[in-house]
Write a structure and sequence with these properties.
Blueprint lengths: L10 H13 L6 H14 L3 E5 L2 H11 L7 E4 L6 H7 L4 E4 L11 H10 L3 E7 L8 H11 L2 E5 L7 E2 L2 E2 L6 E5 L12 E5 L2 H10 L4 E3 L2 E2 L10 H32 L5 E2 L7 E2 L5 E5 L2 H10 L16 H8 L5 H9 E4 L9 H14 L3
Parallel strand pairs: 2-3, 2-4, 4-5, 5-8
Antiparallel strand pairs: 1-9, 6-7, 6-13, 8-9, 10-11, 12-14, 14-15
Helix pairs in contact: 1-8, 2-8, 3-4, 3-7, 5-6, 8-12
Bound molecules: pyridoxal-5'-phosphate (PLP).
């Protein structure tokens, strides 16, 4: 089976983790600190705060911004549910605007319609879905015009940039995930990035039960800290991030050229100024479910990111989001299919995947 995602773990990572285990210092120490410093450098922020997952990074960020009951955060309905669960967990509520059908990202024009009529919105949370940057110039203008915060969910977008500026460095703060399917991994792990030193301090306290030193608790918090093993692994993976992204981009180029002629398939649309880091290569395609089963029979793993927009999720319907009508997000849920793009693909895999997609449609015309 060709998996839809696979982490690349080398000898360097294994040795680095073993060294930590041999040292006996397994929790928040020198490796995590160094990983934070290197990651901030890479993204171009003054601060980075390592956490136990992308979800905990986003959660700490939401609390750090002081969100709570009565507040609203404008975001996309077409993303992983952590994006909005972390808003709900503070007592605030997400407000959804529809996506741009060609990029699957939040549409700035749709966002403005809502901003113009809802003054309780405190922040816009953009999600650089699949590794494709959102229209950051437009979102920067909107946040300025309406006096709201800009936050970036870059969980899927390590190495992506808009106008040559790394994602994660645009808003007041951003976050990344290091889950094993991402462009770099620490097993589980996450990172908040910001150049707002006051916000960074609050988040550091929040992930450590409000303590700046042991048993001196200044605010409420959690234990959302990253382990030293994860920090050691993250340092090694960060060194290889550019190489990983380059392979993903070269695989994407292969698909772009070879799949574009198939009329039943739409390859990713990349607007000007966007440097896509291809965490996922996601097609819009006809007969999606049948194609997915066919590829499974051919031992090709795929994914649907995502089969349902968030307002269609059962729990969100119960929470009163069922009244939304977001046609582009709803349609995308029926048509998207992610095919393998990761750097671990073997020679011949790309050709096999292309040929299989081709033969599926040829037999059905
Ligand atoms: C867009 C988005 N946001 C947030 C997260 C949460 O990250 P994690 O799985 O590391 O908790 C993910 C992870 O898949 C994601 O894709």
């Amino acid at each position: 089976m060709i998996p839809v995602a696979r982490p690349i773990i080398g000898e360097k990572e294994k040795n680095a983790v073993q060294e930590v285990m041999a040292s006996g210092m397994l929790a928040a120490g020198a490796r995590v600190k160094e990983f934070e410093e290197r990651f901030a450098e890479k993204v171009g922020t003054t601060q980075a705060i390592a956490t136990s997952s992308g979800t905990t990074a986003l959660q700490a960020l939401m609390f750090g911004l002081g969100l709570g009951p009565g507040d609203r955060v404008l975001t996309t309905p077409f993303t992983f549910i952590a994006t909005t669960n972390t808003i709900l967990n503070t007592g605030a509520r997400p407000v959804f605007a529809d996506i741009e059908p060609r990029t699957f990202n939040l549409d700035p024009d749709q966002a403005e319609v809502i901003l113009a009529r809802d003054s309780s919105i405190k922040a816009i949370l953009v999600v650089h879905l699949y590794g494709l940057p959102c229209q950051m110039a437009d979102f920067e203008q909107l946040t300025e015009k309406y006096g709201v915060d800009l936050i970036e969910d870059a969980a899927q977008a390590h190495g992506a940039a808009f106008a040559e500026k790394p994602v994660g460095s645009f808003g007041r703060a951003g976050m990344f995930s290091f889950y094993p399917t991402k462009n770099m991994t620490t097993g589980e792990g996450g990172m908040v990035v910001t150049s707002d030193d006051v916000l960074a301090r609050k988040i550091r306290l929040f992930i450590n039960h409000g303590a700046s030193e042991r048993y001196n608790h200044k605010q409420l918090g959690f234990n959302f800290r990253m382990t030293e093993m994860a920090g050691a692994m993250g340092l090694c993976q960060l060194e290889r991030l550019d190489e990983f992204v380059a392979i993903r981009r070269s695989n994407a180029e292969f698909y772009d050229q070879r799949l574009a002629p198939i009329p039943e398939v739409e390859t990713p649309h990349i607007p000007p100024q966007c440097f896509h880091s291809y965490n996922l290569y996601t097609l819009r395609c006809q007969k999606r479910d049948q194609l997915q089963s066919y590829l499974r029979e051919k031992e090709i793993g795929t994914g649907t990111h995502y089969p349902r927009a968030l307002h269609q999720q059962p729990y969100y319907q119960e929470m009163g989001f069922g009244d939304y009508s977001l046609p582009y997000a709803e349609k995308a849920g029926e048509e998207v299919l992610s095919i393998p793009i990761h750097p671990g693909l073997a020679p011949g895999d790309l050709e096999k995947i292309r040929d299989s997609i081709n033969s599926f449609y040829e037999a059905r015309r």
